Every structure is written in C-alpha cells, then in structure tokens.
Amino acid sequence: MGEVAKLLADHGPAFGQALLLTWKLTALSFVPGVLLGLGVAMLRLFPLPPLRWVLTLYVETFRNIPSVALLIFIVFALPDLEFVIDYEPSVVLTLVLVCSAFTADYVRSGINTIPGGQIEAALSLGMRPARIIWSVVLPQALRSVVQPMTSLLIALMLSTSLASQVPFPGRELTTLVSKIATDSAAGMAAFAVAAAMYVATGLLIAWAGAALDRKLRILR
Fold first, then answer.
1. What is the pTM of this model?
2. Where residue 78 sits, what CATH number does that domain have?
3. Can you tell me the distance from the alpha carbon of 25 to that of 94, in angstroms, rounded to the nearest whole number?
4. Fewer CB near the terminus (10 Å): N or C of the chain?
C-alpha cells in the first residue's frame, strides 16, 4: 500500500489525465460506432440482395478481425496507398469500425425478436416501410439489446489500450503504466492502479446499463 500511495503522490494527476483520455476515446468511438451500426442494421432490412451481401461482409469482417491487426493496417498500410491518417483518428477509426460491426449484429438479433405480426399489422394500417422501421421495429430492438450493448461499451473502453501500440499524442492508462514501468521500479503498483481504474469504470458502466435495462423492461 505504501508503494501505491507514493505512486499516486508522484503520478496522481497523470493517472487522472490518462483516465479522462480513456473515457474520451471510449465516447468518441462508441457514439459514432453505434450510429453507424444502426445504419448498417437498418439497411440490411431492405430486400436488396447485393446490398445485404455487402453489409454482411462488412459486419463479418470487422467483427472477426483482431483490433490490433486493423489498427496496424490503418496506421502502416494505408500510407502506402497515399492515405495517411493521424494516430489519434486511427485509433478512433479502428474502434468505431469494430463497434459498428458488433452493434449491427446485436441490433439484427434484437429485430429478430419482434413478432412478424406487428409488422403485418403496421402494413395493414398503411404505414410506410421506413415509418415501420423507425416507429415499430427500432424502438423494440434497442430495448432488447441494452445488456449486449453495455458489454460492448465495456469491451470498447478496455480496447482503448490500443493507443499504447502507436505514438499516440497523449497517454491513456495502458500507455502511462508502460511509461512508468520503463522509467522506474513502480511497475506493479502502476498496473494495480490502472487495473483498479479499469474495473471501476467497467462496474460503473455495468451499473448504468443494468439500471437502463430495468427501466426499459417495464416498457416492453
């Protein structure tokens, strides 16, 4: 405990900044990732086989490719194609693509839980397909995937450690721990502090997700 206390006395502000950067990367990746995933999931509903094939390939590709491999491709392979992206946007883009693929898959699973009779009833009332998707299908699908999306948010938060693999303009938690471990003998204490911060953030997200799920469950 004494070593941890000394570490926090010396690097407390740095850990605070690293935690904020981790949260920032999580938010910058999760919000556009979810929106993109919703768009992909909705487009897969249209009866256009070529479009469905392309979107299915998109989902399966980014859902199964390792995030590190994707980041390496974006950072080191795209410049060979004369397409250069800075390090921070590269990390965010990697997480957005992965998040969107999982979101599209989860939402599709949620859509499959909706009874077909509801859609038939909406059609019989003269509702347009776009209106049915927006007013009938999407709200119910989102309510049924709160827990999977909560788990995705936690996984995305942990995946921000990808930033430690590139010369990132700033230090998120994993990068800071690696720096401290390299420069001093406080590596174990630094890892313990970072792990506690990751766990605390994950528990907070899980609590918020469970509370939202309980609230929406009443509305189903």
1. 0.88
2. 1.10.3720.10
3. 11
4. N
